[in-house]
Amino acid sequence: MSLLWTILATIAIAAFGTGFCYWLMHKTQEVQSSLWILEHIVCPMLNILVLLILVSLVYPLVDTGIDSLEFWEMLSQQGRTTDLLNILFFVGLLLAFIPIVGHPVFFLPLQSILTIALIFNWQHAEVANSLQLLPSLITFLKVFFYMLLAWLVTRESSIYLSRWLDHKFSIEGSIRLIADAIYLVLQIPVMLIYSSFLKLQLGG
Question: Residue 56 and residue 177: Cα distance in Å, rounded?
Answer without folding.
Answer: 22
